[in-house]
Every structure is written in C-alpha cells, then in structure tokens.
Amino acid sequence: MVQKFTPISVVIPAYNEEAAVGAQVESVRRVLISQGIIHEIVIVDDGSQDRTAEKALQAQARVLRHPGNRGYGAAIKTGIMAAKHDTIVITDSDGTYPAEEIPNLVAKLETADMVVGARTGKEVHIPIIRRPAKSFLGWLAARIAGQVIPDLNSGLRAFRRDCVKQYFSILSNRFSFTTTVTLAYLADDYLIAYHPINYYQRIGKSKITSRHFMDFTILVLRMAMLFQPLKVFTPLAFICGFLGGMKVFYDIATVFPRTGSFDWSLLYQPVLSTSAILLLLVGLQLLLIGMVADGVVRRIGQQNRSMAPSHAIRAFQSLPTAQHEQEELTYRTTV
User: Fold this and answer.
1) What is the DSSP string of 195-254?
2) What is the pLDDT of residues 195-239, one digit of tens each?
3) What is the pTM assigned to this prediction?
4) 307 and 190 in contact (C-beta within 8 Å)?
5) Is 316 exposed, middle or buried (0-12, 13-18, 19+ CB in 10 A)?
6) Cβ–Cβ under 8 Å, residues 140 and 152
C-alpha cells in the first residue's frame, strides 16, 4: 500500500551558499517527487553576497530574499510565514542533512507535534572541537526539560505552522532558533519524536563560531526562566542550603575548641558564623523567588495563551455492535 503524504513546504535558509544550494534543492525535489509528495521548496536568501539566489532560481526553487543578513532564525520565520502549506520541513542548504529522510519525518509527524532528525546515525561528521560544547548543552537542556533530548539543535525537522507560530515572539532570529523551539515544545508538553539520521560534511565554511557556545548556554537558561523557573532556582537553592548546613555543622562541632566551655552560655553567645547564616538565607530566598516566578509564569500562561492543539493526541471510537443497536432500540421502544 502506497502511503499518502500531506502536502509540505520545505524551507531552506541560505547565506552565501552558492556552492551547495542548487544541488540541495535538486536533491530534495528528487526525493519528494519519487514519493509522490505535493510540495514546494522555499529558499530564503538571508542577504547573501554571492550568487545564492541565482543558483536557487536555476534549480527552480521559490526564492525569498532579505535585503540584509538578519540571521538563521529570521530566515526560517520568513519562510514559514510565506509557505503555501501548513506542514513545514526545514533543512540546511549546505548538504549536511540527508534529503532522503524527509519522507520519514513527514510520516512520523502524523502522530507527533514535531519530528527532529537526530544526528545519531552511522555517519555523523560533527567537528571534534564542537562536540564537548554540544554535549554540555544537551545535558543542560535535558536536565531542564526533564527528559532525554537526542539532538537539541538539529536543523532537519518537520512541524506544523499553527503550532510553531505561537512561539515566534520568543524564537531567536539567530542560530539558536532550533534550540529554542525544541525547549518551548517540551516545556508545553508537546510530543517531539526523533528519527536517527546521518550528518555529512558540509560544503563551504561553517557560519557557527566558538562565541555561539555562550549564546546557546544563555539561551537554554533563559528558556528555563520562561517556562520552568524552578528548574533553575531549585538547584541553586539546594547548593546554598547544603553549603550552609555543612557550615552550621562545622560551627557546632568546633564550638568547644573555640570557646573552651560547653554550658548554658552558648545560648546567648555567637555559635554560628556569618557565612553559615548568609548561605542558609540565600538558599531560602532563591527557593522562594523560584516559587513566585513559577506561579507568575503559570498564571500568565493561563490568562494570555491559547495553545494550539496537540496532534499527538488521537481520538478513537468503537463501532456499535448489533447487540448494542438492539438494546438501544429496545430502550427507545419502552420509553
């Protein structure tokens, strides 16, 4: 049986990618045509200074162009808003993501709110220098989200426009778009499915630099403050409370060597150090601030947000049997 796919719009942001964008468009089109998927391919030229737009037009893609470089996230937003279809697939223009996996992502989207191409396949070419930072960010995001995230910022994913549009106000215009949308979906209990893919060596020079690591870290913490503030304040409060408790224990254990006596005078003499009291009070304040912030976030969310329905929730209804129909007919007759 041939699977029937929903029409899709493939949004591909591009910035100075003349060497790869044409081949990427042709690769995506070839895969989608082979599967009989109704589609459009939208290239968003983010103010390129080379022939990116020209190469995309030669490959018969629909091209949108920013007058200047606004960023990866801004380009994706532009493509989403201009797309003809409600089902959106995003991928990169540098040849790193396998186009042949797009039908698999679209198929899994029938029972999920977002499908991410997780770079966990047999052939993954992530530069070694970027792997420690990527692992740390993944670990930090998983602690905040409360679940394992196989790939936090993969650039190949499928989702529905109505669901992602509600987060446009907080989605970054830069490289952290994918990271933000992943955490936002998880914070609001949308279902994200992960599909293992390969990740090939890119064509051309990468736009991501070492300074983006700190940007990503701050972003993860900011998203936690927006959706799960207790996930930030509770660990800090616990650390301060634990250190304060250890200092209290130390102060009590060393009170006799310091005072030379152990009698009722300890009730009105200073036993606990200033540092112990400060650590305990800071821990308590952090916990209370986190609880207030969590209450404010949830209250604002209840009043001001109308959530898009989750497509991962499916309704089923049993067909009436002959016995049920007869019982219902008998009941109506007697009534």
Assistant:
1) EE--BPPPSS-----TTHHHHHHHHHHHHHHHH-THHHHHHHHHHHHHHHHHHHHHHHHT
2) 999 998 876 565 555 565 676 677 777 777 777 788 888 889 999
3) 0.75
4) no
5) exposed
6) no
